[in-house]
Amino acid sequence: MIWQRRIQQALEQRKAQHLWRQPHCLQGPQGVIVTRGERRLLNFCSNDYLGLAALGGDALQQAAQQWQFGSGASHLVCGHSQAHEELQRALAAHAGYPRAVLFSTGYMANLGVISALTQRGDTVWQDKLNHASLLDGAQLSRAQLKRYRHNDSDHLQQLLATTDGSGAHLIVSDSIFSMDGNCAELTQLANIAEQHQALLLIDDAHGFGVLGEHGEGARHAFSLSAQQLPLYMGTLGKALGGFGAFVACDHDMADYLTQFARSHIYTTAMPPALAAAMCVQLQRLQQGDLQKQLRTNIAYWRQLADQAGLPLMPSESAIQPLLVGSSERALQLSAALSEQGFWVTAIRPPTVPQHSARLRITLSAAHSHEQIAELVSCLQPLWEQCS
Ligand SMILES: *Cc1c(COP(=O)(O)O)cnc(C)c1O
């Protein structure tokens, strides 16, 4: 009875607060044009920033001829193959680090790294808007979690100055914030970390593959050294259009994570064919054309949206949200867009703070200027009606 009541109450409350979520089913591959149920929609909400999700299939098929399907075990038992080894080496080289350690997902990488490194008496310092997986990683560790105001390195500096000096400090931030699209003050964070002998972990889920001329990521874009940014997490599910994640670091750190990161150790290694296909995806994005195309699209969107009077947020990234506030209104806008053939998800609490529901519009290198212009002309009257 107690469980039934609890579950029913929680479900009813979700619906009443316009926070109910459900997956929509795609009938074909991910891409700029997708088939959802009976309808074809122009997609403006995926994290497939370079359009690579629809391109890896050939590489996967080819790799499957050599590697077949499953890895059979975790990395440390007998599931680690030459394909994994090569992917780790390629990722480390591209991000500019001596080593990289693979994880099944970014969520697991963040849990694994934070919980492996920190112990009771330590403090994990996190930006208020950090991704859920980073916050969960700190919850899982025995360290104390402290959050500083969003993108306010002065606040972090003040808070650190008041600590008593016992225990180690880990500073953690998204590079590009996933629901806002703005960029963290990485140079300041690196300086603060150095000053307080803190370790710095940067989650570059939305920057790896996108930032830097050839998609080297946030470290490169900010001209920071690998010593200044010693723990770099990147994911393979966004700009690389696949699945998986890695942490790039120096040799000792990689050895340490291999020994102690439980979400790396106690889980099946990704299928080796997937690892091999990810290497091909990485080569595709290293050309640099896709990043250039994406930057052109972002600038084009910002120009048109600004002319149309849409309230842009301070984001130079592919994430270009429109802040709505009310969850109900965000849902209505998303539904109205869908009626007209556009897919833009309404992002609501608890993914974002209370009263800050939004349309999280994302751009891809695969969008044409025409498609971007169509979105703006459809949005403009809808936005005026609702504001
Ligand atoms: C998507 C995301 C993750 C999780 O990565 P997955 O590989 O999808 O599990 C972690 N951090 C940030 C900032 C993200 O946006």
Automatic annotation (TrEMBL):
Signal peptide: none annotated. It is an enzyme of class 2 (transferase). Residues 41-377 form the Aminotransferase class I/classII large domain. Belongs to the class-II pyridoxal-phosphate-dependent aminotransferase family. BioF subfamily. PANTHER family: 8-AMINO-7-OXONONANOATE SYNTHASE, CLASS II AMINOTRANSFERASE/8-AMINO-7-OXONONANOATE SYNTHASE. Homodimer. This is 8-amino-7-oxononanoate synthase. It comes from Bacterioplanes sanyensis.
